[in-house]
Amino acid sequence: MKYLIIIEQTATGFSAYSPDLPGCIAAGSTRDEVEREMQGAIAFHVDGLKAEGMAIPEPSSSSSYVEIPA
Questions:
Q1: Cα 9 to the chain's mean position, in Å?
Q2: pLDDT in tens, 4-23
Q3: Which residue, among 54, 14, 9, has the nearest Cα to 38 in the 3D structure?
């Protein structure tokens, strides 16, 4: 499965979350690090849902950019 993650720059690095997996977050010093951490966080989150007998949310979020005149 492929989940959309949102990456935001912070004062000390980067943070990320997935809109399809509430509560699944990660942080890192670099963009690459937060992406790696988020991959692990998603796997851990999904494993936890499975262990609890809960449904695994299907990826449903998408992204798009809009252009506006500057």
A1: 14
A2: 999 999 999 999 999 999 99
A3: 14
Cβ–Cβ < 8 Å for 43, 36: no
What structural domains and CATH numbers belong to the chain? 6-51 (3.30.160.250)
Cα angle 45, 47, 49 (rounded to 5 degrees) comes to 70
Q: Where are the alpha helices (DSSP H) in the chain?
A: 31-51
Would you say how long the chain is, in residues? 70
What is the DSSP-derived secondary structure letter of residue 11?
S
Please tell me the distance from the alpha carbon of residue 24 to that of residue 20, in angstroms, as a whole number. Answer: 9
Residue-wise pLDDT for 41-54, tens only, equals 999 999 999 999 99
